[in-house]
Design brief:
Chain A: It comes from Roseibium limicola. Chain A: It holds the Pfam family Fer4_21. Chain A: Involved in pyrimidine base degradation. Catalyzes physiologically the reduction of uracil to 5,6-dihydrouracil (DHU) by using NADH as a specific cosubstrate. It also catalyzes the reverse reaction and the reduction of thymine to 5,6-dihydrothymine (DHT). The complex is a heterodimer of chains A (437) and B (452). In chain A, helix 1 (28-37) links the parallel strand 3 and strand 4. In chain A, the strands form seven sheets. Chain A has an eight-stranded parallel β-barrel, surrounded by eight helices. Chain A has a four-stranded antiparallel β-sheet with strand order 5-6-14-11, with no helix packed on it. A two-stranded antiparallel ribbon of chain A has the order 1-2. Chain A has helices at residues 28-37, 85-98, 114-125, 149-152, 155-168, 185-193, 237-249, 267-275, 285-290, 294-309, 351-359, 386-390; strands at residues 6-8, 11-13, 17-19, 41-47, 61-65, 71-76, 103-108, 131-135, 173-176, 198-201, 205-207, 210-212, 217-219, 229-232, 258-261, 278-283, 337-341, 367-368, 371-372, 397-401, 407-408, 413-414. Chain A has twelve helices and 22 strands. Chain B has 17 helices and 21 strands. In chain B, helix 5 packs across helix 9 (116-130), helix 14 packs across helix 15 (287-298) and helix 15 runs parallel beside helix 16 (319-327). Chain B folds into three domains: 33-130, Fumarate Reductase Iron-sulfur Protein, Chain B, domain 2 (Orthogonal Bundle), CATH 1.10.1060; 145-240 and 386-451, 3-Layer(bba) Sandwich (FAD/NAD(P)-binding domain), CATH 3.50.50.60; 242-380, 3-Layer(bba) Sandwich (FAD/NAD(P)-binding domain), CATH 3.50.50.60. Chain B starts with 9 loop residues before the first strand and ends with a helix. The mean pLDDT of chain B is 94. Chain B is 35% helix and 20% strand. The chains are: A alpha/beta (437), B alpha/beta (452). The interface between A and B is medium-sized, with 14 and 15 residues.
């Protein structure tokens, strides 16, 4: 059986599945239940200093549902922990003492004053927690007070605070990034420059999940008003995957450990993030939807997949997909694929036809010899993959690569065996050409 | 030996009151909202959807299902009523398993079609509970007068659509209540809570329809006079004659036309007062045979046998209906035709059935082998006929072929001002939904003729 033991910035855990800093890690009761269920580690819900924050007393969450009320996206307006700091510190200390083999990282958010950070770091160190995560991500509430994403959106602040933390603590420092920025590489570079041991991402995305059309107010509605919140859950995974890959590919941050967060629900989600360079995986929404037991599926699923794929330890596949993350300009323009419909699997719903007919390239029939029949017209197919995506039957439509040397019926040109991309394409005014002379 | 059958074992009140209520409750209860949303989400919103093509009234099924899934039940029902104003009844009685649901791509793919019928009921029930009028707006009165004879599905559909176009309709029916087979024929558990009558009120809410009950064509209602009085006539008169078995002893007590008994059952205020035999034999293989068999079983009969002269696959009752009969405890005896009715003291006591087989040229022949089944009641469900004498009184006779009125694609008869639809016309499918389509098509044709 594959070895799931994980070491992330020196912090050991029996598996790479941590609970992210969020309501599930707000107090000892929950964290102990999580450890009993098998979670490898937790990031304790963000601590602040001064008087505890207060939360709204109405709804804190809103959701986007799919079929059969499957929860696809969750929005929240909860703030950092609203329990007294000393209670949290006492519980952290006790839990760490009782669960030495698990990772226990503490999330922090205090005002951007060196003294505030210095003080709280000392207090956390006394608990013997394994590390700290700097919450530069919360997009609601705290950001209005100059914390959370208000810091995460200014690389200079990130670098400054990170540097203080490294200076005033011997603990590993993980910087949690907000996705509510234009280029995720900049805050990651700033964290790196400040000496961060790792970055974790993504925090939640600014969002309004819906509008109550009777109340004419955003949902969830609190006494007739709504405020934007932070969006998470399966719906945000693609955004998080890209941001993780961006940092993993960036020469300036290449090799900087990444803790992946963003819609991780299954072992496969976690493996995908790890393939893109994440050293471990943090989970929140899936646990909030199904409870802590899901970690059993994650552990066994990842282990089974690793066995099947011949990986004996996690390090063997972390980052393996990073070299294949390319830019558009470097994709092979000589690669030509055509959609192919398996007539035995086709149930004749016609969605491929109407999607192609109305919105793409008119490359799929709907009627052949007077009968409903859906077939790709190779002369029109540009290989866009839309039909594959809208087909309700798995593997019914596939993209088949054309063999070099054959003729593409659409362009009537030979499929070239060589690699050629946009940078050398004659239509590209910036193309790199051989010197004329 | 005669003592056992000295009196027939036919009795009312075989069950407790609550058992009647339970047995005759809704066959498919209304979907709960969440059930409906989940089911609606299963629809793929197919392009050029096979279900629409399979629906005799061409309801835009993917659209109405999508409207359910977006929480727009009223709009969904409007989509249904646009094509089929009796969408509520059709949702209950359509053999969807041989129409829309048979061709649903999910049936093809996984053997589990989207429950189109139940979703249609969900939408139409929602509309009819929320609104008391049809979604149609009546055009200004044209002053033209149209007679619709027969207030079954064909007549109701035609009357509604003709009224929508602003013509004034007089709707005649022989019975005291409108609805035709919806009111008097359909099995109780398919139309509970007086739905047929509620649907009639819903249809009449369009306005411009004058109802005259107790008027039967051929009895005080004369086609020639109607033609003289009205600008157009629609005949939706159904099949009021009943086929007989042609056997000796058929006149004995408790040898009954199934449609008559079903009509009594439908109109009964207290099912406990309805006499039912202990041993029952039903002759026939169609929906009526299943309806009478299942309902007598539900009334407390012990042994109910449907005797059909060919194999089960040839029965006109759908496979679903056959299963319904069998899971209700009805025995389907195939390859058996009625041979003789035995009786004592003027009432039936048994029926002799002759085994049948197909000859090499595909014809049916008796084998001579006789099976005798004890029977306190024998129901005849061997088809209904058009009573052609009802059509008399017109100078130019309407063309009738194979016992049915001949109509064009527009449902126009051989008489230019007379249209017809439903079970009485040739080529009909004996389906409620087909009758509704006939009425709709005829109404549009009548409107074109009157507007020309």
């Amino acid at each position: 059986m594959a070895d799931l033991r994980n070491t992330f910035v020196g912090i050991k855990s029996p598996n790479p599945f941590w609970l992210a800093s969020a309501p599930p890690t707000d107090k000892a009761y929950n964290v102990v239940r999580a450890f009993e269920a098998g979670w490898g580690g937790v990031v304790w819900k963000t601590l602040g200093d001064g008087d505890p924050v207060v939360n709204v007393n109405g709804p804190r969450y809103g959701a986007i549902h799919g079929k059969d009320r499957q929860l696809l996206g969750l929005n929240n307006i909860e703030l950092i922990t609203d329990r007294p700091l000393e209670v949290n510190l006492r519980e952290i200390k006790q839990v760490k003492r009782d669960w030495k083999d698990r990772a226990l990282v503490v999330s922090l958010m205090v005002p951007c004053e060196e003294e505030n950070w210095k003080t709280i770091l000392k207090q956390v160190e006394d608990t013997e927690a394994d590390g700290v995560e700097l919450n530069f991500g919360c997009p609601h509430g705290m950001s209005e007070r100059g914390m959370g994403s208000a810091v995460g959106q200014v690389p200079e602040y990130i670098e400054m605070v990170t540097r203080w933390c490294k200076q005033h603590s011997r603990m590993p420092v993980i910087v949690k990034l907000t996705p509510n920025i234009t280029d995720i590489r900049k805050p990651a570079q700033a964290a790196h420059a400040g000496g961060a041991d790792a970055v974790s991402l993504i925090n939640t995305i600014n969002s309004i999940v819906g509008v109550d059309l009777d109340a004419m107010a955003p949902t969830p509605t609190i006494d007739g008003k709504g405020a934007h919140g932070g969006y998470c859950g399966p719906a945000v995974k693609p955004i998080a995957l890209n941001m993780v890959a961006e940092i993993a590919r960036d020469p300036a941050t290449h090799g900087l450990p990444i803790s992946a967060i963003g819609g991780i629900t299954t072992w496969r989600d976690a493996a995908e993030f790890m393939a893109l360079g994440a050293g471990n995986a943090q989970v929140c929404t899936a646990a909030m939807t199904y409870g802590f037991k899901i970690v059993e599926e994650m552990i066994e699923g990842l282990s089974d997949w690793m066995d099947k794929s011949g990986y004996s330890s996690i390090d063997e596949f972390v980052g393996r997909a990073v070299p294949n993350c390319s830019d558009w300009q470097h994709l092979n323009l000589n690669y030509i694929a055509k959609a192919k419909i398996d007539q035995d699997l086709c149930i004749k719903c016609g969605r491929c036809h109407i999607a192609c007919e109305d919105t793409s390239h008119q490359a799929i029939t709907n009627m052949v010899d007077g009968a409903r029949h859906f077939e790709v017209i190779d002369e029109e197919c540009v290989g866009c993959n839309l039909c594959v995506n809208v087909c309700p039957v798995e593997d019914c439509i596939t993209m088949e690569a054309m063999n070099p040397g054959t003729i593409d019926p659409r362009t009537k040109k030979v499929v070239e065996p060589t690699y050629a991309n946009w940078t050398t394409h004659p239509n590209n005014p910036m193309s790199v050409r051989e010197a004329a002379e | 030996m005669t003592e056992l059958n000295a009196t027939p074992d036919v009795a009312a009140g075989r069950l407790k009151t609550e058992e009647y209520a339970d047995n005759f409750s809704d066959l498919h209860p209304l979907l709960e909202p969440h059930e409906a949303y989940v089911e609606a989400d299963r629809c793929y919103f197919c392009y050029d959807a096979p279900c629409v093509q399979a629906c005799p009234t061409s309801i835009d099924i993917p659209l109405f299902i999508r409207q359910i899934s977006t929480g727009n039940e009223i709009g969904s029902a409007r989509t249904i009523f646009d094509q089929n104003i009796l969408g509520g009844m059709c949702a209950r009685v359509c053999p969807t398993e041989t129409l829309c649901e048979q061709v649903c791509v999910r049936e093809v793919a996984e053997g589990k079609p989207v429950k189109i019928g139940q979703l249609q009921r969900y939408a139409t029930d929602h509309f009819m509970n929320a609104r008391d009028k049809t979604p149609f707006e009546r055009a200004p009165s044209t002053g033209k007068k149209v007679a619709v004879v027969g207030a079954g599905p064909a007549g109701l559909s035609c009357a509604h659509r003709v009224a929508v176009h602003g013509h004034d309709v007089t709707l005649f029916d022989a019975r005291p209540k409108l609805g035709g087979l919806n009111e008097y024929g359909i099995a109780s558990y398919k139309s509970v809570d007086d739905f047929a009558a509620r649907e009639v009120d819903f249809i009449l809410s369009i306005g411009g329809i004058t109802v005259e009950t107790g008027k039967r064509l051929g009895e005080g209602l004369d086609l020639a006079e109607l033609r003289a009085t009205y600008d157009a006539v629609f005949l939706g008169i159904g099949l009021s004659g009943v086929n007989s078995l042609g056997l000796e002893g058929e006149d004995k007590d408790n040898v009954i036309d199934a449609v008559d008994y079903i009509s009594d059952l439908r109109q009964s205020q207290d099912l406990g007062t309805l006499p039912v035999g202990r041993n029952i034999v039903v002759i026939g293989g169609g929906m009526t045979a299943v309806d009478i068999a299942v309902q007598t079983k539900l009334l407390g009969a012990d042994e109910v046998t449907i005797a059909y002269r060919r194999g089960q696959e040839r029965m006109n009752a759908s496979e679903y209906e056959q299963h319904l009969a069998q899971t209700s405890g009805v025995r389907i005896l195939t390859w058996a035709q009625p041979h003789a009715i035995k009786g004592e003291n003027g009432h039936v006591s048994a029926i002799e059935l002759e085994r049948t087989a197909e000859t090499e040229d595909g014809k049916l022949a008796g084998t001579g082998e006789i099976v005798t089944l004890p029977a306190d009641m024998v129901f005849k469900a061997v088809g209904q006929t058009l009573v052609q004498s009802d059509l008399n009184g017109t100078v130019a006779p309407i063309t009738v072929e194979r016992g049915r009125i001949v109509v064009s694609d527009e449902r126009q008869t051989s008489l230019p001002d007379v249209w017809a639809g439903g079970d009485c016309v040739l080529g009909g499918e004996d389906l409620t939904v087909a009758a509704v389509e006939d009425g709709k098509v005829a109404a549009e044709s009548i409107n074109r003729a009157l507007s020309a």
